[in-house]
Design a protein that fits this description.
- The strands form 2 sheets. Strands 1-4-5-6-7-8-9 form a 7-stranded parallel β-sheet. It has a two-stranded antiparallel sheet with strand order 2-3.
- By secondary structure, it is an alpha/beta fold.
- The longest helix is centred in the middle third of the chain and has 25 residues.
- It has one domain: TIM Barrel (Alpha-Beta Barrel).
- It is 49% helix and 13% strand.
- Strand 2 and strand 3 form a beta hairpin.
- The structure holds coproporphyrinogen III.
- The site of coproporphyrinogen III (CP3) has 22 residues, from strand 3 and strand 4.
């Protein structure tokens, strides 16, 4: 049997829609917190393939979701390009040295840092039922570059945006390098058993339209084009968070197979504006899931009504919040699948 998620990404509508949740493995689950404490931190978990496979499977055991998403991080790509990476408690990720001038040539590439991730994918693939899809992922070059240039997360991605204006050649070279590593990385995940891949562009919303064309659409199209040559038929989901009105150009020009919508996008508007028949994913507000009850019911009904003629994957508009009650995830699945909640 084909997994429902893959059926929908292939362009066929299913009712009820398949469901998975961004950040479905993580800190809202006690079994995650327990294993993380035992292994001594996030990166230690990612690099212990047995533990990472277990964490990937934890939300499936609990909820019976329609897909597993590899447990890893988008910053593994800069790590494999030779940057130092750490996740300090309560302070978010740090990459060193910050590439304030874009120059990555002095880094010593460390492609061996990708091998344990492929091993995690292989282990998960061996465990999954045929009706549960396995999703691989990477960050989009723009979002990854914002962390590489600043050395950490930032509110407005100012340093990367400044570099892109001040020295577009250096920034282009950095983006091109990230594209090349990302294509290899995603192809490696697919070789290991990933059946679809998602490109997370968490900071797509911070760019002016011409910069969006150059730093979001063009590199995404490059990745899609090269991946399609190496792995024809593997669907690619693009998630340009915050793209707003620029979603239309993104969907039409990147070549992605399906588009993930964040919670600020009006689903009715998206349905009217996106190419006919293009599968969409989303876009329940993570706070509606956090709230549960009527807030969640209204949100689910609205999204499903807007996409009642289009292939739809039900998901959140962004990652699940850490303090989300587990009972609300169960409630969501019962609502979608028509069981009494
Ligand atoms: O969705 C999943 O369950 C798969 C695993 C996954 C993680 N990160 C695990 C993680 C995925 C797909 C990501 C993507 C990611 N990582 C993005 C894009 C999506 C988004 O959320 O916008 C970004 C920007 C990152 C970079 C990153 N990683 C940040 C900014 C942080 C710190 C913020 C935070 O939530 O703690 C991380 C750490 C991280 N990545 C955690 C997890 C489960 C938390 C680590 C921990 O403390 O246990």
């Amino acid at each position: 049997m084909t997994a429902p998620l893959l059926t929908v990404l292939g362009g066929e509508r299913l009712d009820p829609p398949p469901v998975w949740l961004m950040r479905q493995a993580g800190r809202y689950l006690p079994e995650y917190r327990e294993l993380r404490a035992e292994k001594g931190g996030f990166l230690a978990l990612v690099y212990d393939s047995a533990a990472a496979a277990e964490i990937t499977l934890q939300p499936l055991r609990r909820f019976g979701l329609d897909a597993a998403i590899l447990f890893s991080d988008i910053l593994i790509v800069p790590y494999a390009m030779g940057m130092d990476l750490s996740f300090g408690v309560g302070e978010g990720p740090r990459l060193a040295p910050p590439l304030a001038d874009g120059g990555w040539e002095a880094l010593t590439p460390a492609p061996e840092r990708l091998a344990p991730i492929y091993e995690t994918v292989r282990r998960v693939a061996a465990e999954l039922d045929p009706d549960t899809a396995l999703i691989g992922f990477a960050g989009s070059p723009w979002t990854v570059a914002t962390y590489m240039v600043a050395g950490q997360g930032s509110k407005d991605q100012g340093e990367a945006r400044r570099l892109a204006y001040r020295d577009p050649h250096a920034f282009q070279a950095l983006i091109d390098r990230i594209v090349a590593v990302t294509v290899d990385y995603l192809a490696g995940q697919i070789d290991a058993g990933a059946q679809t891949v998602q490109l997370f562009d968490s900071w797509a919303g911070s760019l002016a339209p011409a910069e969006f064309e150059r730093w979001v659409i063009a590199p995404t199209a490059a990745i899609v084009g090269r991946l399609m040559v190496r792995h024809p038929g593997v669907p690619i989901i693009g998630f340009p968070k915050g793209a707003g009105a620029k979603l239309a150009a993104y969907a039409a020009e990147t070549g992605i197979d399906a588009v993930g919508l964040d919670e600020t996008v009006d689903p009715g508007w998206a349905d009217a504006m996106l190419p006919l028949g293009m599968p969409v994913q989303g876009n329940i507000d993570p706070l509606a899931l956090w709230a549960g009850g009527d807030a969640l019911r209204v949100s689910v009904a609205r999204v499903r009504a807007a996409f009642d003629e289009r292939p739809h994957v039900l998901n959140l508009g962004h990652g699940i919040l850490q303090d989300t009650p587990i009972a609300h995830v169960e409630e969501l699945l019962a609502m979608v699948r028509g069981e009494a909640a």
